[in-house]
Amino acid sequence: MDRSCEPAVKIRPAATVMLARDMGSGPEIFMLRRSARSAFLPEMFVFPGGAVDELDTDLARTRLLRNLEMPNPQREPADPSFEVAALREAFEEAGVLLSADSGGIPAVLDAEQLREQRESLHAGATSFDAVLDAFGVVLDSRRLWHFSHWITPPTESHRFDTHFYLALAPAGQAASSDEIETREGLWISPSDALRRNASGNFPMIFPTIMHLQRLSAYATLDALHEFAMTKSICVVEPVQAGERRFALPAGLDGKW
């Protein structure tokens, strides 16, 4: 079959958030297993994330608190719409809302109200901006650390232009799967996730594995934060390295 005339797969903007915590034994990352019924990455363990939508762009203008980002030739700048998408997906898929009150102080939110608002959002009974109204908060991207920028290679049937963020999970909020698109939410150390993947019982895709490898090098959240805030950020589009296998483009190892 001549594939030269087939329409190109649309590349959708997306954001992913790697929620981190430390319970005394080193950094752990919150991960979810996608539903077996999902048309995209069924049964894979992933970080919370999803596509950027029009509401994200609107909220980036009106309901987002963010730090001034100083230009750095080694770091691609963050995009407010992607930051909102990351914060929204953290709430939708993990039940965690990184927000601040009108004075810019990180908000302390009621766990039961968080659960109720999340259920209403999934049921279509409310919208994400209405959730923010219910809590009287704005989104707080000061608590997001821009980490990387990956584009799905053209060989894939679903393509995303994805910005990855790292965020410290807020105290008093319990992360959990939504039991709709995802299940089996768990906190796990990057090294343990990689060991379980190598043993064959923790399936992950190439970008997830590569991010966990980078995170696994840091023994404390402070060290991880310092790395995330100073590392270079450039576009990564993996290349094929065999049947269903991928690799980093030449020259990017340790530099993305």
Explain what the structure shows.
The protein has helices at 54-62, 80-94, 111-122, 128-135, 190-198, 206-215, 221-230; strands at residues 11-22, 27-34, 45-46, 49-51, 64-65, 99-100, 138-140, 144-151, 159-168, 182-188, 235-236, 239-240, 246-247. By secondary structure, the chain is α+β, with helices and mostly antiparallel strands. It has a single domain (11-247), classed as Nucleoside Triphosphate Pyrophosphohydrolase (Alpha-Beta Complex), CATH 3.90.79.10. Strands 1, 2, 3, 4, 8, 9, 10 and 11 form an 8-stranded mixed sheet that branches. Strands 5-7-6 form a 3-stranded mixed sheet. Helix 1 (54-62) packs across helix 2 and helix 5 (190-198) packs across helix 6.
Q: What's the β-strand tally?
A: 13
CATH architectural arrangement: Alpha-Beta Complex
What share of the residues lie within helices? 25-40%
What do the pLDDT scores average to? 93
Q: How many helices in DSSP terms? A: 7
Distance between the termini: 36 Å
Class computed from helices, strands and strand pairing: alpha+beta
Fourth CATH level, the homologous superfamily: Nucleoside Triphosphate Pyrophosphohydrolase
Identify the overall geometry.
globular
Our count of domains comes out at: 1
CATH class: Alpha Beta
Poorly predicted runs are 1-5
- Give the topology string: H per helix, E per strand: EEEEHEHEHHEEEEHHHEEE
Sheet with the most strands?
Answer: 8 strands, mixed
Our Rg estimate from Cα atoms comes to: 18 Å
User: Might you state the CATH topology name?
Assistant: Nucleoside Triphosphate Pyrophosphohydrolase
- As a percent range, the share of strand residues is 15-25%
